[in-house]
Write a structure and sequence with these properties.
Two copies of one chain form a homodimer. Chain A is α/β, with parallel strands linked by helices. Chain A is about 30% helix and about 25% strand. Chain A is built from eleven helices and 17 strands. Chain A has helices spanning about 40-45, 65-70, 85-100, 120-130, 180-190, 200-210, 215-225, 235-240, 250, 275-280, 340-345, and strands spanning about 5-10, 55-60, 80, 105-110, 115, 140-145, 155-160, 170-175, 190-200, 260-265, 270, 290, 295, 305, 310-315, 320-325, 325-330. The first copy, chain A, has a five-stranded mixed barrel. The first copy, chain A, has a four-stranded mixed sheet with strand order 12-14-16-17, with no helix packed on it. The longest helix of chain A has 16 residues, at about 85-100. The radius of gyration of chain A is 21 Å and the shape is globular. The interface between A and B is large, with 36 and 36 residues.
């Protein structure tokens, strides 16, 4: 079987998890669900399947130091540093060039670094099914059975797999729907959430770039001879900076026929904002989800995260309360998804 | 006119304003309403009427250092240190002995150190009216026109003053009423809130102790020769510690006939808990009362006090949010009066 390379995509900004996340320390690098960061958890989770020398960490230049510090076990040449953010198509294309250099026959498993996975062993089984079903497909996407009419995710329309097969043929990708569409998708049974996790033959992926993103591919062709060479940072930066800002979904995945979907056998959440923490952690009997030093009295259905201090609540409900780095956030759970609005309202030195 | 001595009573514990107030730094010593502590504000307010050498600060031994630090302008021998807390009757009796020693003909103006006064000049005018109406009365109490059916204060039943007089004859004192009684008192027009501010001839006050609190008076008689002497701390402590724990209201005021009431001409609040802060400070157009570094978005009717850090709120209402000394409080405004319950629930090292 071809060698599998995991590409762990640890991009992102710091707004949705303010004040714990910051531009210097965005979501993948914060210990949202325990003592390890989401990035560290993602690397640990894949390790039984992919040896560390084939785990590539895709990060922005600003986060190189923190990523190295958090992942001392990952070989230094496995940190694929983007000179600047150019969305996921450029990110994955750049990593595909690195994999091609190491093994032109390799597979790429692209994994976001900042998602919640409920059961690591079921996760590995799901990925294994993906590997087994890649042959003959243009690529494999991992889908999540919808459990609510979520309007914050993209959906994937499939048809039922052939008897004896685990792979659902993909019909098409659907952008984030409105509430009534989301309800319809939930009830239909043929739709999945797009987890953002993909598996490709690296060679096929490069061909898909050539077909569907010729401009990006032409930039990649210029980058190809520079990969792994010394002293080419400036030139890489110049070429990479000229790549179009397009997501892999929009640029490649939605245009690709012959994709197969493997349904996730594990609880999953993209932890899009503070309010989603209660889906990834277990709320207590009063519905409170607590991390850190907290005392709650007559309080219910709150999400509380204390980094350094003690938080005490009395007679409150449905709040997100977070303390970190000299800042305190008190936010209605309903408004947590719009936290960017608050962060924009903060004085520059408070953000 | 007899010399007037102000006794500023700065006792109290730290529970109602947790986490800003603590047993080491109870309510009178914290800057609740601005940059000065309530005690400092009380001393400044009375100064135009009572020179500093006649301003006595009644404090517990634990708070001597902080009181001296906050009031460097007050002569050191004016800090009347109680060896332990024995409620307000013992406090005022002890101060009466000190005044007697300095001037047996003096007047005592007893003032709580931890109240809000809206207009310092109207306050002084009210006190002046008290002084003018003391002659011929057993004492003067200062009353507040009720503005709401408050169940947290004691009330004073009066009758209308004689034509041309400012003093309302006191009929009787009434303990904290239930809601329907409070409503009745509010509507009647003959009831005042008891502000806890009193004016007495010091000589008359000592006689009232002798009449109504003979046990306390007998202790005071033993303390009398020790006042202002060196090396008598242990003995003072022993005698003071044996005084009954009774409030001045219960022990003397409620039993005294011939009291006169002067209505306060100023906005007043006893600032009993965090929720009362919005009566003493001016809420903004959204009903928010803010002290310290705060950013509010889509938030209303909150009381927010930040000592050291930045508090940001989004989509919340009717909350008390306080940050101080490594603790964060988020409390429903409705429950702020019961904050002791939360403080009791905290781990000993969190309180």
């Amino acid at each position: 079987m071809p060698e599998i390379y995991a590409v762990i995509m640890a991009g992102g900004r710091g707004e949705r998890f303010w004040p714990l996340s910051t531009p210097e320390l965005p979501k993948p690098f914060i210990p949202l669900l325990g003592s390890s960061s989401l990035l560290q958890e993602t690397v640990s989770r894949i390790q039984p399947m992919v040896p560390l020398n084939r785990v590539l960490i895709s990060i922005g230049a600003d986060h190189y130091n923190v990523a190295r510090r958090q992942l001392p076990q990952v070989p230094s040449h496995n940190f694929i540093v983007e000179p600047m953010g150019r969305d996921t198509a450029a990110c994955i294309g750049f990593c595909a060039l690195h994999i091609e250099k190491r093994n032109p026959e390799g597979m790429m498993l692209a994994l976001p670094a900042d998602h919640y996975v409920g059961d690591a062993s079921a996760y590995l089984k799901t990925l294994q099914l993906g590997i087994e079903n890649l042959e003959g497909a243009s690529g494999v996407v991992f889908g999540i059975f919808p459990t609510r009419p979520e309007t914050g995710y993209g959906y994937i329309l499939t048809k039922k797999p052939a008897r004896g097969s685990d792979a659902w043929p993909v019909i098409r990708f659907i952008e984030k729907p409105n509430a009534s569409k989301a309800k319809e998708y939930l009830e239909s049974g043929d739709y999945f959430w797009n987890s953002g996790m993909f598996l490709w033959s690296n060679q096929t992926l490069l061909e898909l770039f050539q077909t569907h993103m010729p401009e990006t591919y032409s930039g990649m062709a210029k980058l190809r001879p520079l990969i792994g060479t010394q002293g080419s940072d400036t030139e890489i930066s110049r070429i990479f900076g000229a790549l179009p800002r397009i997501s892999i979904d929009y640029g490649i995945v939605e245009k690709t026929s012959g994709l197969r979907l493997i349904p996730a056998q594990f609880a999953w959440d993209d932890i899009g904002n503070w309010a989603s923490l209660e889906r990834a952690l277990s709320p207590d009997a009063s519905g409170n989800t607590i991390q850190g030093s907290c005392t709650l009295l007559e309080s219910n259905d709150c999400i509380i995260y204390s980094r350094d201090r003690t938080i005490a609540t009395f007679g409150v409900s449905n709040l997100v309360i977070v303390e970190a780095y000299g800042k305190v956030l008190v936010c209605s759970k309903d408004r947590a998804a719009d936290l960017k609005k608050l962060v924009s309202a903060l004085e520059p030195n408070e953000g």
